[in-house]
Automatic annotation (TrEMBL):
One of its GO terms (biological process) is carbohydrate metabolic process. Coiled coil: none annotated. This is Polygalacturonase. PANTHER family: OS01G0618900 PROTEIN, PECTIN LYASE-RELATED.
Length: 451
């Protein structure tokens, strides 16, 4: 076991190394499933501190070069077993920087990695191939505060330290319509595998918070994501064209969807052709002016085999939102959402083929998505304005939609019934009474078999 010895830092670094060797304290209630086995917490052979590379945590010194030197040194030495980069308590102001393979970024108690406000010099990177352009504007996009590409074995963890994007300046540029390229997120990992993100607070992201794209074997656990209710597009976690992803035991309060599963945008996503699959989302609590759990609307590479369970959504616009559009192509299938508690949510459920915009006018208007095999069960809701809407696409209806044991207490002056069209399926023990398209007993075995 190797360690950088720097005077008074040695005892502290030794203590944090022991914590890292034991792994984070991921403890679910007895009998509850966890995703701890998907990616094991790795023992690191070496610990270095950002202070060893000239970092100063005074909230004023810009530490971009210090982070770059630290990561470069980890990459070049490539110590067997990997290296832990320790971020002590303090405010570590920095611009965007990249991670490398076989490293742990460890934020100690009281540590804050804070983005600089120099938006004019923020680095640009290429658009994602499955999007064809920036999500907000044509051309490239601003790099996320913490970024990585083609990495393996990366851990971001700690003692609930904070990664702060200081997004308000970016939000105002967006509001003023003077944005030149798509805003940066807080963390984006591309083409990477064996990732753990845990015990960290993400706050005030300029755009999406945590974005694993073209990744596999990703665990997001015990994470808190915070952004003001009116902050634009501050999604919590967006697994995108990724597989074997588990998101659990998180609290999120953001300005957009808490968790949104994606897989590319229109003709670019169809051409790239990488679906999101094997996604598990469980024990998420939070509020948002948009949806607690969402699929889409960018689903052109396909989304399949998704399980979301034990969700607690409050003070939100929509509880469960599955969304696509004509021109998207792709598919959404084998989605199960179970064990959901909704409180003060305007619409319990929305499944729609009329959501989201298009990257340009080159999309195929005949590229209709295939949507089917969606099971929503064991849902309880209070203070709900409308139970839900399920609207498929003309000449491409959504099929095998199953609602079971869905009990929503609709209250308030704007009470509305279920609305359905271009959809078929079944409903069992649903209150208020579901729409007629879901009440036929003909061909209901798909629904009863899913329970």
């Amino acid at each position: 076991m190797k360690m950088v010895r720097r005077g008074s830092m040695v005892p502290m670094l030794f203590a944090v190394l022991l914590l890292a060797l034991k792994g984070a304290a991921f403890v679910a209630a007895e009998g509850e499933e966890t995703c701890s086995g998907i990616v094991p917490m790795k023992r690191r052979s070496e610990v270095v501190s950002i202070a060893d590379f000239g970092g100063v945590g005074d909230g004023q010194t810009v530490n971009t070069a210090a982070f770059e030197r630290a990561v470069s040194r980890i990459e070049q030495r490539n110590v067997p077993g990997g290296t832990l980069l320790y971020i002590p308590g303090g405010v570590w102001l920095t611009g965007a920087f990249n991670l490398t393979s076989h490293m742990t970024l460890f934020l100690a108690k009281g540590a804050v990695i804070k983005a600089t406000q120099d938006t004019s010099n923020w680095p640009l990177i290429d658009p994602l191939p499955s999007y064809g352009r920036g999500r907000e504007l044509p051309g490239g996009r601003y790099m996320s505060l913490i970024h990585g590409n083609k990495l393996k074995d990366v851990i971001i963890t700690g003692e609930n330290g904070t990664i702060d994007g200081q997004g308000e300046k970016w939000w105002n540029i967006w509001r003023q319509k003077t944005l030149l390229f798509t805003r940066p997120g807080l963390l984006e990992l591309m083409h990477s595998t064996d990732i753990i993100i845990s015990n960290v607070v993400f706050q005030n992201s300029p755009f999406w918070n945590i974005h694993p794209v073209y990744c596999s074997n990703v665990v997001v656990r015990n994470v808190t994501v915070l952004a003001p209710y009116d902050s634009p597009n501050t999604d919590g976690v967006d697994p995108d064209s990724s597989s074997n992803v588990c998101i659990e035991d998180c609290y999120m309060s953001t300005g957009d969807d808490l968790v949104a599963v994606k897989s590319g945008w229109d003709e670019y996503g169809v051409a790239y052709g990488r679906p999101s699959s094997g996604i598990t989302v469980r024990r998420i609590t939070g509020s948002t002016p948009f949806a607690g759990f969402a699929v889409g609307s960018e689903t052109s590479g396909g989304v399949e085999n998704v399980l979301a369970e034990n969700l607690n959504i409050f003070k939100s616009a929509i509880g469960i939102h599955i969304k696509t559009n004509t021109g998207r192509g792709g598919f959404i299938k084998n989605i199960t959402v179970s064990g959901v508690t909704l409180d003060n949510v305007r619409k319990g459920l929305r499944i729609t083929g009329k959501a989201g915009d298009h990257p340009d006018d080159r999309y195929d208007p005949n590229a209709r998505p295939v949507v089917g095999g969606l099971t929503i069960k064991n849902v309880r809701g209070t203070v709900i304005q409308q139970p839900g809407t399920i609207e498929g696409i003309k000449n491409s209806p959504f099929t095998q939609i199953c609602l079971s044991n869905v009990k929503l207490r609709v209250t308030g002056p704007k009470q509305m019934p279920w609305v359905c069209n271009d959809v078929s399926g079944g409903a069992l023990e649903v209150q208020p009474s579901p729409c007629t398209e879901l009440t036929s007993t003909n061909g209901m075995s798909f629904c009863t078999d899913a329970l």
